[in-house]
Amino acid sequence: MASRSLATSVGKLALRSPLIAASGTVGSVWEWAEVADVRPYGAAVAKSVAPEAWQGRPAPRLAATTAGMLNAVGIQNPGIASWVVALKPRIPGLRVPVWGSAVAGDADGFVLVAEGLVSAGVTAVEVNLSCPNLEDGEMFSFCASRSSEVIGAVTGSVDVSVGAKLSPNTPDVVGVAQACRDAGADFVVLTNTAFGFGLSLSDRKPLLSGGVGGYSGPGLKPLSLRCVYEVARAIPDLGIVGCGGVSSGADVAEYLVAGASAVELGTVHLAEPKAGIRITNELVELMAKLDVESVADLVGTVRSW
Ligand SMILES: Cc1cc2nc3c(=O)[nH]c(=O)nc-3n(C[C@H](O)[C@H](O)[C@H](O)COP(=O)(O)O)c2cc1C
Questions:
Q1: Is the pLDDT of residue 62 over 50?
Q2: pLDDT of 147 higher than 60
Q3: Which atom of ligand 1 is nearest the CA belonging to 61?
Q4: CA distance 54 to 16
Q5: How far does residue 283's CA lie from ligand 1's centre (Å)?
Q6: Domain ranges of the chain
Q7: Rounded CA gap, 285 and 254, in Å?
Q8: In the structure, what pLDDT confidence band is assigned to residue 1 with cuts at 50, 70 and 90?
Q9: For residues 208 and 239, is the Cβ–Cβ distance under 8 A?
Q10: Out of 3.40.640.10, 3.40.50.300, 3.30.1330.30, 3.20.20.70, which CATH number does the structure's domain 8-297 have?
Q11: Which atom of ligand 1 is nearest to the CA of 128?
């Protein structure tokens, strides 16, 4: 089993494993790395950072649902300048490549954050075009031209791989992914959380102070997988990172077969910070059962009826 190759690539980035820790579920990576074994991961994405510090939303910000959870954290973060001070000395000592995640209200803000992330030593930048928990305006990922403007500005400013993280609620996910690719994105992350809402019958209040929030966990998988499947078929030369509801090796394999070449784990970390070891073991066992030697032998191999 040890001979199975987990090595993969996303755009021009080589990864030792297809597993990536998703933004917002492993802190700024170093805190998580103190309690989890990071070796099973090809990369870990830090919590999104904005140009200035954001306090986030008031409690309650997290709520359990039958098949996953809702969150409306509101991108609580220290702002890029403080982030760089905290992360720059730590990144070289972490035994996993760290990706940064940028969030902002306009293209200039995204550029400022992306440049800061790169100065701190990240190996890739995810451009979070799909945060569901911001009060102002429509998501960038709903609009091809706004997404293109941001991605073009970021790819023109930094020399690491840049990925666009899109929402499963994006009306034309293929069109927006194509616009991001045309603007220079090396890959897309499909997807962020979906809009979700829950309430408590005992007091008839929403579960989250913000009302509507982001839904993640097992119930999200078919929605995100659909995005991966459609984008992979339409844009074969675009790197795709699958994300949404992954909690087993079989989930990872499904994303790979649908067309992703790497897969992010998010919500599963909140209950199981060491999920990467179990999921890697499950993936390797499954590869043996399917008689595939390499992760690359699974990528984009979905068959037609
Ligand atoms: C508590 C929480 C905070 C999150 N914060 C971020 C964030 O800051 N930036 C981001 O791009 N995605 C964020 N996400 C979304 C995850 O990275 C991931 O895209 C989403 O949860 C779907 O994957 P999952 O079903 O495996 O959790 C957050 C998710 C959760 C649950």
A1: yes
A2: yes
A3: 1
A4: 34
A5: 22
A6: 8-297
A7: 14
A8: very low
A9: no
A10: 3.20.20.70
A11: 11
> Does 28 sit in the ligand 1 pocket, CB within 6 Å?
no
Tell me: the pLDDT tens digits for 157-169? 999 999 999 999 9
Quote the percentage of the chain above a pLDDT of 70: 98
CA 49 vs. chain centroid, Å, equals 14
| Atom number, ligand 1, closest to the C-alpha of residue 216 | 25
Whether 143 is a known active-site residue: answer: no
Ligand 1 probe mutation, 19, 20, 25, 103, most atoms within 8 A of CB: 25
- Ligand 1: does its nearest atom lie under 6 Å from the Cβ of 77? no
Confirm or reject: Cβ of 165 under 6 Å from ligand 1: yes
Ligand 1 centroid, distance to 193 Cα (angstroms): 6
Q: Cα separation of 214 and 167, whole Å?
A: 10
Average pLDDT, the chain: 96
To the nearest whole percent, how much of the chain has pLDDT over 90? Answer: 94
List Cβ neighbours of 128 (8 Å cut-off, separation of 6 or more): 23, 48, 101, 102, 103, 165, 192
Residue 22 alpha carbon to ligand 1 centre in Å: 6
Nearest CA to ligand 1 atom 14: 24
pLDDT digits over 214-234, tens only?
999 999 999 999 999 999 999
Alpha-carbon distance of 226 to 263, in angstroms, equals 14
Atom number in ligand 1 closest to CA 71? 1
Alpha helices in the chain (DSSP H): 30-33, 80-87, 107-120, 144-155, 173-182, 221-234, 249-258, 268-271, 275-290
Angle at 98 between CA 92 and CA 103, to 5 degrees: 130
Cα dihedral across residues 95, 45, 28, 196: positive or negative: negative
- Ligand 1 centroid – CA 53 distance (Å): 19
